[in-house]
Amino acid sequence: MLVAGDALANIHFAFDHPDWQMIWDHDRELGVKTRKSLLDRATHDRLLVTGYHYPFPGVGHVVKEGDGFRWLPADWVWDRET
Description:
There is one protein chain. By secondary structure, this protein is an alpha+beta fold. It contains two helices and four strands; from the N terminus they run βααβββ. The longest helix has 17 residues.
């Protein structure tokens, strides 16, 4: 599992446009390089990914789409027998 923390804080901007420089990146060029690297790794290694601000269920996978990436949330299974 890749815990992306704030490196991939927003699944829309960071995934759709990893080359955009974010205002909260202390080193904006390194931020772009880090986002692209994490997204490439998550896609290539088919990692389960989570981050601080992701929508429910908060875990999922990443796929390459065009020049960016797309978030695929994991299926949530309710266990009614507990």
